[in-house]
Amino acid sequence: MKINFTCIKRYFTACYNKKYNAVIYINKWIVIFDMQKSNEDKQNRRDFIKYLGGAAIGLGIGGLGFLNSNSQLSKIKTRNTELEENITVLNDDLDILNSWALYGGGSNIKKMPNTIDKKPTIQMDENFYFDHRTAICRVDNNPEAFIMPTYKMGEVQIEKNTFFMLMSTKSLHVKSIEESENSTCILEGSTGDCFTEASARGQVFGSRIKPEPFLPEVVAVDEKSFAFTAYFDESEAPVNYAIFGPKFTFTGELTTGSVTVKRLNQLAKSLPK
User: Fold this and answer.
1) Which of 11, 13, 37, 175 sits between 20 and 30 A of 236, alpha carbons compared?
2) How is the chain split into domains, by residue range?
3) Residue 43 main-chain phi, psi, to 5 deg
């Protein structure tokens, strides 16, 4: 039998080619599968990163909300503390009102240096009124010229009929009461208005219309005296600070009116029957 090597060679060649093509085909799909898997992994990584990013943003927003909530809580606590302090003050005031009579009004006489020998002969009337919450002190006019010892300008001659001063406050509360034969009450406040106007050297200083602020303190001594102290801040009350300085007390000899600092039961005993 004669073997045809040419046919055998063709057969094996064909088989080899088929197997080779199959291998190529299979490898091609493996490559495609790997590429798809790689793309899926990349997409998954992208999705995971987006998830982490979203979570971070969410946590950030939540953190800001938490911080904001804490800030609001802190403000609420501060406000509650202020309200509790106000309630305490109001209760103290109520106790005082239920047991003490605090009021008065009249006129103090203050004598200022004259323009000749600078002796204190020029009479100035300071009209006043006060109770547990309110205080007023007023100088309407100066019939004669006088010397004003100012805080920043030295001695200044104030022209006659030009001086005006009005201090008022509605923010007083009782700081202390010292009980005695002539009991003393100290009241202090958070704010007040002071109008001051005067003419000197042909110029008008201050205003009867525009007030400057001050911190008030009142000392009232039963049947004896009334003193109204003003604390001025130079940046807020430049005119009054230049004239009176950081602290000035308006008082004098009580000539008309009265000052009452008495327990209610003591006051009741003095009333006519």
Assistant:
1) 175
2) 99-270
3) -65, -40
